[in-house]
Design a protein that fits this description.
297 residues, alpha/beta, 5-stranded mixed sheet, 3-stranded antiparallel sheet, 10 helices, 10 strands, 47% helix, globular, disordered C terminus
Amino acid sequence: MRSIPTDLLRAFVTIIDLRGYTRAGEQLGRTQPAISLQMKKLQDLLGVSLFAKEGGTQLTEQGELVAGYARQILALNDEMMLKLSSRESAGKLRLGIPNDYADHFLPRLMASLARDGADLTFDVVCDISHNLLEGMRKGQYDIVVAMTPDGPSEGAFMTWKEQLTWVDATGRGDGLAGSQEKGPLRIVCYPEGCLYRRNMLTALQRDGRSFEIVYTSPSLSGLEAAVGAGFGMTVLARRIVPSALRVVEPAAHLPRLADVVVGIYVSADRKRSAVARSFAARFADMFVASDSGVLAG
């Protein structure tokens, strides 16, 4: 009886969910050729063809069967590791995460863990990504979700690209972007060091657009209150824009924004890494599901 490594199954499921080898590699922190080699190994172990054509994502009949079992195996594996490892890991699972990601994703994740009866305790710190990665290097966290400007930091468990967008208040016609097209743009933003802020100001300076920072807050709720009141505009990750605010579609009077890379980072501490990696895998699955716009609930 042959055993199938779970990392091969996780790569297989990620290819299906993201509809591509390259995107799966970005999510899992591997190159596209490495993902292809994993699929070749998985098919050799199973003795069947999983995809209708090499390099494609359309599943064969055997691939559909394997996909169903793979999801069950991964769910049981992650649940087992969470429950076993949590009893061996002294203290709480220390999670560092940007404020807006915490507000948007943690409620769903906590509800899922509560439904499954996961025996875990948490210490969650919200901060800008630069500080979180520095804290991870100093051993202050077991898991960190952080953004980087040009590519993932060393040792990423999983990475993906996040599209940024301009945001203003709803129900304001053309919004602040239109009304301030000729004057300084009123900017609402996170404190210095935030990548949203850096990308926004870099884009404005590149296009020679005048601006004025009129409001700074470390919390998403603070930004939402200021923008919602029409006090200024801001930049956020497109898929986590609060429903009370409005995404400003690309326009000539607003500069184009660069994407950021988001990564999940796991502590290398052997005593804590098992539970941290299991939790990170579960967290990553939720990010993958929401990447297509369907948030896990």
